[in-house]
Amino acid sequence: GIDISKLRDVSGAITVDPGYKNTGATKSAITFLDGEKGVLRYRGYPIEQLAEHSTFLEVAYLLIYGELPSSDTLLDFRKKISRHTLIHEDMKKFFDGFPSKSHPMGQLSCLVGALSAFYPESLNPNPSEEEENLTIIKLLAKMPTIVSWIYKKSLGHPVIYPRNELNYVHNFLNMTFGQITEDIVIDKSVVSAMHKLLILHADHEQNCSTSTVRIVGSSNANLYASISAGISALWGPLHGGANQAVIEMLENIKNDGGNSAKWLAKAKDKNDPFRLMGFGHRVYKNFDPRAKIIKKACDEVLDKLGINDPVLDIAKELEEAALKDQYFVDRKLYPNVDFYSGIIYRALGFPTDMFTVLFALGRLPGWIAQWKEMKANKEPIGRPRQIYTGSTIRDYVPLDQR
Ligand code: ACO
Fold it and tell me: Any one cellular component term from GO for this entry (predicted)?
């Protein structure tokens, strides 16, 4: 019953909790997570049920607006989104300006931030509900176009324009893997795996990127700027960047003769900064429920596509060995969602440096929902305190006397 916006600071008393391991930053009604029991629910619905029965756009609606949509509402939501899938032709100049090998996450963060320049109405810190919704719809609609165009540009290929008769995920895959000269046939199992992956990434309460989105938004920065900051936070290998790091690690192990025992030992060596990428989680200490679902989807996709990849054999070997190893057991380190997601993305044909961008595409509805909730709660500007440990007062010494 406490109104957090009314809490006053207590001068002198400061809690220091590096990494916010035990500090709640907000109250939220979006995602429930029990790390001990491995439970994850969006708006009360278990992630397992949503991954099995729902679609990504339906889950996006659920996260952002709080309820599952009726079929009419969902149709309306889809229609509105399909009206905004194009991006301004001038945005193409940004794509052209990036070196072809620049990392897709840097481009994505920049391009999403740039949307604010094309839609200046988003700068209004007190929009009407209708205006706020339009900004949200535009971002949801344009993100797949931006992501697939980043990929096409990296290949030096012409971009594919959105096909609005296709559903959100199918349209994205078409823009990514389609050719200008021919219609693409995408296996149903691929579309279904992509829905699952995006749903499983759609929200995860107050993680690093989401907290970033909320804290940037709390200064009344616009939605595009807030999400752009979230994308940058997600980029790091300890967060979303781990899915790329997992495959790079597996490739390194393969190139090193496939000796996973040696690399497991490296991960346990406290004098070696190497960590087993895709293992461990700040909150899940028994298992990551998303990893369980993805592992199954991963097996299905690989089976369906008939993929035989030595890197995947190493992944299996490493997983089995780590799960039996006392070091990992004692520290409750289990495979997280990123351990398997990269394997599926690779099987679907995405290059490694696109993996984190796909995470961002999935996380977008969660970030939007959290930003919207922060605004609706009228939360005060985020401004952590500190304990100062620097020098005590001292006098300035002129340059020629130093
Ligand atoms: N490999 C080896 N040892 C590990 C690993 C790992 N992947 N993860 C944690 N440990 C060890 C630590 O060295 C530490 O050991 P100690 O107690 O002997 O000092 C202990 O386990 C606890 O680790 P912390 O770093 O304190 O755990 P924290 O909750 O801060 O970190 C994190 C969680 C960042 C996810 C960590 O497990 C990690 O670096 N994992 C690899 C990167 C990764 O997969 N990130 C993706 C996270 S999921 C996501 O963002 C969607």
Answer: cytoplasm
Tokens (6 digits) for 103? 């990392």
Residues 6+ apart with CB under 8 A from 138: 84, 115, 119
What is the best residue among 33, 40, 47, 275 to mutate for testing ligand 1's pocket, by most ligand atoms within 8 Å of CB?
275
Of residues 201, 205, 204, the one with CA closest to residue 193: 201
Which atom belonging to ligand 1 lies closest to the Cα atom of 282? Answer: 29
Query: Where are the alpha helices (H) located in 218-309, listed in sequence order?
Result: 223-235, 242-255, 260-268, 289-305
Cβ contacts of 188 within 8 Å, gap of 6 or more:
none
Q: What is the Å distance from ligand 1's center to 41 Cα?
A: 23
Catalytic residue among 203, 288, 325, 338: 338
ipTM of the complex: 0.93
The single-letter code of the amino acid at 107 is Q
pLDDT tens digits along 54-98: 999 999 999 999 999 999 999 999 999 999 999 999 999 999 999
- Which residue is associated with the tokens 């781990």? 242
Residues 355/244, Cβ–Cβ less than 8 Å: yes
